[in-house]
Amino acid sequence: MIIDAHAHLGSWSKEEFFPVATADWLASYLDLMGFDKLIASSLLAIFYDFHEGNLAVVEATRRYKGRILGYVTVTTSRFLDEAIKEVEEMVTKYGMVGVKIYSTPLYHPVPMPWPEVYYLHIDEPWMYRIVEKAAELEVPVLAHATPEDCLNVAKAVPDATIIMAHMGNTQIARGDWNKAIMVAESCKNIILDTCSSTVDMGFVERAVERLGAERIVFGSDVPLFDPWCQLEKVKSAEIDEEDKRLILGENIARILRLEE
């Protein structure tokens, strides 16, 4: 069983560089790779309209029921009450399986309607309320954030499960996977995902050695990263086959209670 725990629906503005990941495209991707399932968040929801983007993910999960699962995405602090309501409704009514928070300053090639998204940090009191809601609903938070911010939130909301996207390899913590491992060592409710531009030899092995394979999940970040490269980071790692099975699907299935 292989489950891609980090995928996206939609377009990253520069369509000449990246594919447009429609629901059909994602389903074809699963077929091509031989994967069983993926969990997608909306790129539209990250940068423009979180409600419209989340509804598009809901439609994709209905179109490919059981194969495409969804994260509900919220970003701007301008609509905090609406964001909390969005999380609850998308999880309880529409079956979203987690929350995606895109945090940290970054460059974007196009203007954004809410510039404050440039400066969002998950380590802020208003963001804690979103994470607390996820914990209440018993769904994980996939956090595109620095290791330090993930640590602070995980300690502040100990009942939450924080999946640190890219193993902490964000725009302002580029390549710092070792710090991500150290942070996860100190806080048991932090999980690391493997997708990133990092190709350092041995980083998967180091994470397994220090955390145990049970604390790591596989993700591709399609359509932004090459999924073959992301998959081979795990498949070619010098770890036990059982550890590979855990990372490639069994861990995220357990976190999402898919076996129940």
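Second entry:
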Amino acid sequence: AMDGEPLLEKRYLEEENRKEKRFVNRFGEESKKLWNISGPAIFTYIAQYSLGALTQTFAGQLGEIELAAVSVENSVIAGLVFGAMLGMGSALETLCGQAFGAGQIQMLGIYMQRSWVILFATACLLLPIYLFAPPILIFFGESDDISRAAGKFALYMIPQLFAYAANFPIQKFLQAQRKVMAMAWISAIVLVLHTFFSWLLILKLEWGLIGAAITLNTSWWLISIFQMIYIFYVNSDGAWSGFTWLAFRDLYGFIKLSLASAVML
């Protein structure tokens, strides 16, 4: 019996070792899968956030009032709009995820168009924030000089508002299909272009804040346009089957879900 005990113990330890190895291997595989999706997605968000941060850095070389104008517009006005738009676009995460899981691939394109309709309408509703930025900023205690400069820059940045409306539904559409690598590559290319043209227009050609606005607006629109080209012409795996009137159906339910997503975010 005594001889049998070490043998049993040995077997038990071997079995535990095997289980441990299996767990480590499985953990490694799952982590790799997770990082294959989340890694490029994280990079995409960092690259897109860096667009505004880079513009701010270049504006800082123009002068204090220019830096203040860009940072206030970036953090307060664009920041508020970015949060609202991203939140409302997040309704697609649920819907596209469900449709993709259920194999209803064509619904992804319809949901994306429906989200475009709602986000472009939302952009129009948010437009007064850009148009009346100086009095809004003064009301919240910003100085007159900075409020006026930020308000002027906000007017230049109106195209960015509509680029957000185009961009967020596309990103959720691609994320649902795990096509995050395409998003990461596009964001990386645009970030490089943005850095070069920021230097060229803001500092070299001395276009100042107008140069900053042109570069930042163009960069955000390039991200949307490149992603659309990828979906329409390169690779949509049947998820995109063209523009359809179905985008205008059941908008009320979609608006409710979008608002709920925005509030949660």
